[in-house]
Amino acid sequence: MSELIFSLAAGRSGSAWLAHFLSANLDFPAVHERLDIDDFGTAMPDIRTMRAFNTRGLDDVVRGFWSRKMASLPNDEPYAETNHTLGKCGLIETLAEHPRRKDATVIVLRRNLAKQCASYIQRNDFANITLAWQWYLSHDYPNVIVNPDNLLKFGIIGHALWYTLEMECRQVYYERVYGGRINFVYAQLEDVTKAEGARQLLADLGRDKEPTLPPKANASATASAPVKVAEIETFMSRLGFDPEALVSKFLEAGFTLDQSHAKTPQVAAAS
Predict the structure, then answer these.
(1) Given Cys at both, which of 51, 109, 155, 159 links 126, Cβ 3.0 to 4.6 Å?
(2) Rounded to whole angstroms, what are the CA distances from 39 to 46, 69, 95, 126, 253?
């Protein structure tokens, strides 16, 4: 068996850049997203897989996808994939149970939350439900950590805000619940795109070398307006958002992301 590298990321947080970075610095190419027609449902989660996991947890549909996905990976050569959708439909749960768990490393990739959220808003990523189903998450899912109710009054912007907070909580959740079984390494986009942070990430991946830094990848056509980012930062600070506390409440209530349950009582924003 050979090394496996995946990412746990929200999207719009540098997963495309990370694939280029890994390809430039490891001795094998990394995949960002597998998008050929026959990949969907086999190597790339389709809408049914994404909706099933976030509605029913690790049901037969989701387990079937992961059986096909893991079978599609090479056994005798290393493999890296930074596809952010995988972490939203059972990647961590699957690795924790899989014989190749000891071969696997998951890069927990984060970005400044306000900049990340501004990117979703700028691209209008939550204007169409099929985008949320395939690439992100829907606030209608029962299996969520952050209750979206007090954010939805802000419309599409509120959905983007909720998703940003939900994914931060999910990263905390997976780190806490699976940290003893999965080899997590940590990367903050603003740091790893600079030499020192990149060098540290390579060291965490077992490579002692000077990094090659690729250019930005999959960037928005126009930069987020600074005032918009500042407004989002101010709004988030007023929420008193505490992902550690929200994850604690979720777990103390007996909930997990891999099982179906009623919506959780946590509220992300004050009324």
Answers:
(1) 159
(2) 9, 9, 20, 24, 37
